[in-house]
Every structure is written in C-alpha cells, then in structure tokens.
Amino acid sequence: MAVLVAFLPVLGTHGGGAAAEDTNARRSRPHHAAAPASAMEPAAPVLSRAGWTASASDEETAKADNRAANVLDGKADTIWHSRWSADAAPFPHSLVIDMHRTEVVSALLYQPRTDGANGRIGEYAIHLSTDGKNWGAAVASGTLADDATTKTLSFAARGTRYVRLTATSEAGKRGPWSSAAEIQLLGDPGLPASVVELPTTGWTASASDEETAKADNRAANVLDGDADTIWHSRWSADAASLPHSVTIDMHRTQTVSALTYQPRKSGGGANGRIGAYSVATSLDGVSFGTPAAAGVWKDDDTVKSTTFTRPTPARFVRLTATSEAGNRGPWSSAAEIRLSGPADPAVSGAWDRVTGFPLVPVATAVLPNNKLLAWSAYAIDRFGGSNGYTQTAIMDLGTGQVTQRRVDNTGHDMFCPGIAMLADGRVLVTGGSNASRASIYDPRTDTWSATGEMNIPRGYQSMTLLSNGDAFVLGGSWSGARGDKDGEVWSPASGKWRKLPGVPARDTMTADPAGPYRADNHQWLHATSRGRVLHFGPSKQLNWIDTTGNGTITPAGTRADSPDAMNGNAISYDIGKLLTLGGATAYENVNATRRAYTVDLGAGAGTPPVSKRTGDMGYARSFSNSVVLPDGKVAVFGGQSYPVPFSDATSVMTPELWDPATGAFTKMASMAVPRNYHSVANLLPDGRIFSGGGGLCGDCATNHSDGAIFTPPYLLNPDGTRKPRPAFTSTPPARVANGAALPVTTDKPVTAFSLVRAGAATHSVDNDQRRVPLTFRQTDRNPAGGASYELKVPDDPGVALPGTYMLFALDAAGVPSIAKMITIG
User: Fold this and answer.
1) pLDDT grade, residue 603 (50/70/90)?
2) Does position 299 have pLDDT exceeding 50, yes or no?
3) What predicted TM-score, i.e. pTM, was given to this entire model?
4) 543 near 555, Cβ under 8 Å?
5) Cα 482 from Cα 457, distance rounded (Å)
6) Which pLDDT does position 12 carry in this prediction?
7) DSSP 33-59
8) Is the four-CA dihedral 404, 410, 412, 415 of positive or negative sign?
9) How far is CA 19 from CA 430, 476, 480, 515, 582, in A?
C-alpha cells in the first residue's frame, strides 16, 4: 500500500518574531532538515496479506459494494462501510481480520476512505484472538483525528491469528457510520511489552563453530556484557559455511518471550551481521522443534530483537543465522545476546493498553482536575512556520477519553516551548514556533488566553516558577536569533516580562559543536528560596542565579566528573536533592551515557552543591523522560543510545527505576512503543505514570500519536492484581499556606506523606516536578482502623514552591494512596 510510507519533504522552519533577524533567513533555517531515512520506514515489517480474509459486524451491499473484503484488496478507492441503506446500523461497528496463521503483530494501519469524510473512525478499540472467539481485554484504544491520513494504531507485540478493530464513534460526528479503505498489520518490532531481560548469572553459551585460532571469538563472549568482544563463526583456514548457531544454556528452565541480538560494533567491521535468522527452544538441549521466531534483520549495528509467537518454557535457546545481512561472506557474529521473559508485576510493574491520541503529544501538563493537557504544533503530526495556532488535546484520566481542540485565539504556535506551572494551577507556555508569544491555559474555565510577549524570542528555552510566584525563562536559540537568550522574569500581577541582563545564557551553555543554536537548549532549573535558581545542567558547569533586580549568575562548580549531558533528565526527588540521568555531549549523533548523578544543594544558594556519581543506568539514554514517585524513587522511560531526532533506531524499550536508598537502577517491564525525541512522561494523581508521544515528522513512520500508562510495582501483586492501598477519608482544604498545619484522616494507619508537584513535560525537561516529603504527627486513632494526622507544610516557598501538588499517603509497605490535589501558597 503506497500510502503507508511516503517521502518526507524538508520540514518547515520557524521564525521567532525577532525584528533584527531577516525573515527569509529565519525561514531557511530548519528545525531539522529532514527526518532520517530510518524514520521513513515502520519499525516493524508490513505483513503479507496473502490468504487473509476480512469480515464485519455489518456492511453495505444493497446500494453499494462496501464489503469488508475491500480493506484487503490493495485499492484505496474501494471501501468497507457499515450498513447505511434503509436503517443504518448503530455503533459499534467492527472489522475482523483473519490471517489464517499465527503471526506476531504490533500495529494496525488504518487508511480512511479517500472519496469523502463520512465514516472516518473516531473512537476505537483493538482486540486480539487466537481462535476468533476469546478476545480478552483491548490491547489498544483511543481517539483518531478527523482527517484522511493513514493512522498507525500500535500495541504490545503478540502472537495472534485474529485482529478486531471496533469503532464506537465517527470522527466528525457526522452520523452512525464507520468506513475504511485499507487495513494493514505490522509484524514484530522487537520486544513485546511487559517482559524483562533475564539475568545471565550462571548461563553458558556454545556455538556450531567459533574462531579461536586467530582471534578470541568464542561463543562465551555473547554473555560477558562487553560489546567489544564478539562471537564469530570460524573464519581462519576454511571458513565454516552457513548456517551458524549459538545456543544459550540457562541451566534452569525459564519462560522466554523474546531474544535480543547486538551486532558487533561498526568500528570492528560489518562482517558477520546476521541477516535471516530463526530462534528455537529446547528443554533438554537435543529436541528443539518448530522455531519460536524467525525473520530478517537489517544490515546495521543497531540492537535487534525478536518476539516469540508465544511465551515458551525452555532451558536452551538457539539462535541460528542462515544468511549474512550484507551478503559479504559465509560469516556470522554477535557482540551480545540476551533473553527476556514475562515480567513479574510486583517487581517490574505493568503497562496498560496503548491509548491513541488525535495528535502527537509533544508537550503535556498534569491539571488539577484529573486531566492531562497535551499539544503538538500547528498540525497534529508535523510542524513548520509560525502559524499562530496550535493543536491541543485533553485526556480525562478518569474515563480515558481524549478530546481535540485547535487553539487560535492567542496567535501562538506552541511547538517547542518553555512551560511553567503557575501558582494557581494555570499553565504558562512561552515561545517556540511563534517565538516571542506567551499563552496561558486555565483549567478552571478550560480557556486559553494571551499574556505579555517576551522581550527575547525563544524556542527550546526552559522555565521554572520562582518562590515568589513569578516565572523565570532562560536560553532558547532554536527560534529567533541565535545566542544572547538571557534570562527574563514574568510577573503574574502585570502579565509582563522583565529582562535580567545580569543572567547571560552564555554562562550556562554546553560545548555543543552547533554553538548556541543547540548549546543553550533544554536547561535544568531548580527554584529555591528568595527568587533564586540553581542551574545544574545539561552543561557540566553549575550556576547559582539570583533573579532580583537585574539578576546575577555565579558559578557553582561542576557536576562531579559528568560531561555535558544534553537531552538528559533532571529531577528533584527530595528536599534539596536532585538526580540527573543520561544525556550526551551534543544534541544528536553522538553516543549517549548511562551515567547518573546526585546533586545535593547542601547549605543552599551561595554555596557549591555537592555532586556525586550514583549507580549507572542499565542503558545509555538521550531523549528519555523521568518522573519522581511518591516514595522518592525515580522512573526513567525511553530514549536512544545514539540520539537522532525523529528516528526509532537504537531505542531503549526498557524503563528503569532508581532507588535513592541504594543508588541502583532496576529494569522494569518493557514498553510497546518507542519513546524518543518529542516524547513525554508524567506522574498521575493515582500514582501511575503516563508515557507517550515521539516523532512529529509529517509523512513518516515514527510519529507516535499515542501513550500508555505504566503501573509501578508498588501498586501490584505478583499476579498483577492491585494491592490494597490507603485512602484519604477527609477532604483537605483546596489551598494551604506555606508553614500551615494540614489535618487529614485516612482509612488505615500510614507511615509517610509526600507532596509531588504537578509537572509539565516537553523535550526531556520537566523543571516543575519536585517531591517534598512531609513531617507529621498522628493526632487520633479510629477504632474502625483509620487514623488522623497533622501534616506540616514547609515554611519556605523555595522548598514547597507555590502551585498544584498531589498529596499522597503511603502505608508501611510503601503503597501510595490516590492523591488529593491541593494548592500550596
């Protein structure tokens, strides 16, 4: 189907409204010249439709040939349509694809009709079945945009025979109809969701043949954790002919769901990259039976994965190569091989179904009313120019429903902005495509309004609210003139901006080879007392910033031995304690790092923070996102080991959880969809985490107009059921002052309380997040099992920054309550 993958024109460019900059010069400078070649192809193969059949809950055949079979005929001008003659069939309408064989499937591609708008699917759900009778829970659901573009509806890769698409609304509300021109399915992209990498302790590896005469290319090298050592088939004297195999002996029976293959590094040569392969399992090392997975890997050095058609108990797993990816010779090689199995929810957490959005959620903000605000750019799937409007969406966290709105009244294309969560719960959005503009969303009235324009046009800037309720912005040379993006402060009283000539951005930049255009982007800012801010990255240099008067900036040492860490993450996990994770020495096209550091503010402003390297992540990441949990642990999602905007190559599919008590990272259940450049993550009031987005590159295959909610292990039993959790039995006041005593009651005794500030994420930055553990005393014990407490809100607004917080109670097992939303200040 030709419409699935189209060539992407050079992406549109952004001006910024800077009077001194020539308009034509602004338009000639792209955000990125074009999406990379890897963005133009789906991460998973398009499955052959040979032998497939399609059926429908209803179809129009009386007055038109709108049979379900038309979605498989390869013709965009023939369609399936729900029954519309006589009495139209009411919702829901469904299509069932029968592949007549078991395949690993990871996405459904829905092409709307091209001859009209009627019947474009709005709300949908996808179910899978091995027998066509038992369907289980939906693997994906959501809301589609009302346009004619082909939609990729992703879900966790799984072996199945039947795929059912159910429409429950028409996108434009035009009538009780559903239609489709073509349906395609994508195959195996790698790891399915809710698996974890199995520990290799005690494992051994053997091979059909190996090179030991002229090099140490033993099979054992695939398990040593060193990508610089490899297994290679015998190449000295007479090279061993294909096929070649490596067999992993786990020395115990475990359930295995997927295999991951890391080719040798390009620096060591391309010879032996595996092309066509199969994977088989055995309980005894003798009988291997039918392959659990097979396919062809691309000829590059990125990590490859393959999903088994079903989880399989095994002791031995054999990877067999039947071709060399580049047809360079009769060789095979591997740097590392890993196996994954089903995750224990109580240890690794679990993912909910994938939720489709009518846009790519490039930026998100958690609202006080249990909703999530998201937006993309002037378009739902691409950016370009300074168009003066923005596509937005709001997800109701209670119902899961998503609604879309185009915001025109502020004259602001809010792509690539700075964001600050204001003291009263409103969301301040600055710059980006319309680089001097500033807009405010008010969740109380569900309205957008304009506020004063910035003095300096910006894009990729960072913001934070100050302890006095003002908002501070710094950097942002992506839009407007390059360089000189010095600090400014916005006042909620006047709605105007005040320049800070004493806070030059040049003192905060990385050493990116692209200069200010990249070097002043996405800064990590932590507000403290009396209007001060710690700038603690992504440059290796830290700085104290004072925003009073004209402002000042004072060097505060370096982040221990950390290099620059552009597009890494930073988060406040405790009072005066910060964590930084990953990043890279340049914006793109360099290796990311696995390193993580703690930064302790110590005595506060004016004294150098104490930076220390903590445990390394299991994976190098750039373009990832992190959130702090109510218990002080930090979860990190997605990213790439070699950052390239708009690409899904080198994606890290395994989230990790950092424990401040040990400094160690634990691998969590893998994701179903890559989350890289332009992705987001947010802690939700129920203690779960939203992770979504990525892409926004137009007619490419790496737009991810969806998200999924991750349930951390603190909420789950080993069988996946929910642990009983404490609950508030009183309603705290909507607003409390700093220093106030806050009375609360719970349904059972608890051992901790914490505040987590509602966050706003974009471009791997969320400076609004912070966790504030509370001191408290028990004031009463209810005979029925409940208890009353008095919580102490910190006096210092530099600790409990003004704004909306989620108040959590945690029991002795560390299980958090559903939060109560309160405003501090």
Assistant:
1) confident
2) yes
3) 0.93
4) yes
5) 10
6) 35
7) SS--GGGGS-SSPBPP-TT-EEEES--
8) negative
9) 18, 16, 9, 22, 37
pLDDT over threshold 70, residue 18: no
Encode pLDDT of 243-281 as tens digits: 999 999 999 999 999 999 999 987 788 999 999 999 999
Neighbours of 391 (CB within 10 A): 24
427/442 Cα distance (integer angstroms)? 7
Residue type for position 532: R
Structure tokens at 59: 């179809």
* pLDDT tens-digit readout, 763-810: 999 999 999 999 999 999 887 788 999 999 999 999 999 999 999 999
**C-alpha angle 508/513/519, rounded to 5°?**
25
**Residue of 105, 257, 262, 276 lying closest to 191 (CA atoms):** 257
3-state SS track over 281-311: EECCCCCCCCCCEEEECCCCCCCEEEEEEEE
Interatomic CA distance for residues 101 and 186, integer angstroms: 15
Read out DSSP for 378-404?
Answer: SSSS---S--S-EEEEEEETTT--EEE
Question: Which residues are CB-neighbours of 379 under 8 A, at least 6 positions away?
Answer: 391
Q: How many CB atoms lie within 10 A of CB 398?
A: 11
Cα–Cα distance, 648 to 645 (Å, whole number): 9
Q: What's the rounded Cα separation, in Å, for the pair 771 and 629? A: 8
CB 527 within 8 A of CB 476: no
Interacting residues of 758 by C-beta distance below 8 A, sequence separation 6+: 365, 366, 367, 368, 421, 425, 768, 803, 804, 805, 806, 821
Sort strands 689-693 and 706-711 into parallel, antiparallel or unpaired. Answer: antiparallel
Q: What is the DSSP string of 626-659?
A: EEE-TTS-EEEE--BSS--TT--TTB----EEEE
| H helices, E strands: number in the chain | 3, 54
CB 374 within 8 A of CB 748: no
Q: Can you tell me whether residue 529 is helix, strand or coil? A: helix
Helix (H) or strand (E) holding 518: helix 516-519
User: What are the tokens at 417?
Assistant: 């902005």
* 543 close to 508: Cβ distance less than 8 angstroms: yes
d(CA 777, CA 438): 43
Which positions are catalytic?
A: 677
Residue 236 phi, psi (nearest 5):
-80, 155
My answer on whether omega of the bond before 92 falls inside 30° of 0, hence cis, is yes
Coil vs helix vs strand at 363: strand
Element (H, E) at 810: strand 803-810
Residue 346 in contact with residue 742, Cβ under 8 Å? no
Q: Report the mean per-residue pLDDT for the chain.
A: 93
